Amino acid sequence: MLGPVILAASRSDKMRRFVSAAPGTKQVVDRFIAGETVDQVVPIVEDAADKGLEVTLDVVGEDITTPAQAEAARDAYLELVERLKDLDLGPRAEMSVKLSMFGQALEGGHELALANVRPVVEAAAAIGTTVTLDAEDHTTLDSMFAIHEELRKDFPQTGCVIQSYLFRTEDDARRLSAAGSRVRIVKGAYKEPASVAYQDKAEIDKAYVRITRILMEGEGYPMIGSHDPRLIAIAQELGRRAGRKLDEYEFQMLYGIRSEEHVRLAAEGHRMRVYTAYGTDWYGYFMRRLAEKPANLLFFGRSILTKG
């Protein structure tokens, strides 16, 4: 019930100011955001590699209103690629990008986002890694999938994300599960109307299982984005039934959530990737993490009360 309210608050400037000023905010933000700069996030990538983990790095920030801001987002990712190259960390770290950061919502946004993201994908390929295009709200998906298809012509390892709460996603999964594809399945974290998305958690979970089966039985590379122990166990069983080896799919979880499980899955031989966000414009990302799980909101509330 609280999730839609929190997602609405993620678009409110008034709530942004309130949350940013709250005494306990930094403690909670630090749990989900790895740092503000590349220098702060590099040790986290190195530590993950030492533990047998991989990462996907997200430079947070979605409220892009000018082409210059979109170019700055592109440059932030290019800076990240250079640091990974210098430290020979490319094979352990891919990148996740939201096309809204690259100007997708601006006038001529489809072409602008493609022009801005292409050099990032090209630079990533040059150091032995890749980029995954994150899914945003349903109105952006046709553009995202078209950009994904265009990028894969030259960079076939480019990944994309699909969301189980959308009615369209099973068809998208069938289309995307061909050989060479890389697809991350998540439940979804945007407020969507009942005309396009399941509203009931049980229905979302059932769709997640159906879509995971499609991906596991396909010829691509599934990336299972979930912290739910039941869905993780089901994904393992579906992988086994599909005859997949442990390195023929991977699990992904957020930085700061169920960290012991990250290590456990890696120790079992699974590929385990930690979604690691960093940057100064953390508000939208942070609010969606609160909306996804009530325990996160309770943790935030306790922090404010104890710090106030």
From TrEMBL:
UniProt xrefs under SUPFAM superfamilies: FAD-linked oxidoreductase
Entry cofactors: FAD
Pathway(s) this gene product operates in, as recorded in its UniProt entry: Amino-acid degradation; L-proline degradation into L-glutamate; L-glutamate from L-proline: step 1/2
Superkingdom of this protein's organism: Bacteria
Catalytic activity: L-proline + a quinone = (S)-1-pyrroline-5-carboxylate + a quinol + H(+)
Keyword Acyltransferase: no
GO BP terms, alphabetized: L-proline catabolic process
Binding of FAD, residues: Q163, K187, G188, A189, K201, S226, H227
Keywords of this entry: FAD, Flavoprotein, Nucleotide-binding, Oxidoreductase, Proline metabolism
One family name in Pfam for this protein: Pro_dh
GO MF annotation list: nucleotide binding; proline dehydrogenase activity
Enzyme class: oxidoreductase
EC number in record: 1.5.5.2
Cofactor note: Binds 1 FAD per subunit.
Residue ranges annotated for the Proline dehydrogenase domain, each copy included: 45-298
Residues the entry annotates as binding substrate: K98, R288, R289
Entries under PANTHER family matching the protein: PROLINE DEHYDROGENASE 1, MITOCHONDRIAL, PROLINE OXIDASE
Protein name per UniProt: proline dehydrogenase
Organism this protein belongs to: Streptomyces californicus
Taxon lineage: Bacteria, Bacillati, Actinomycetota, Actinomycetes, Kitasatosporales
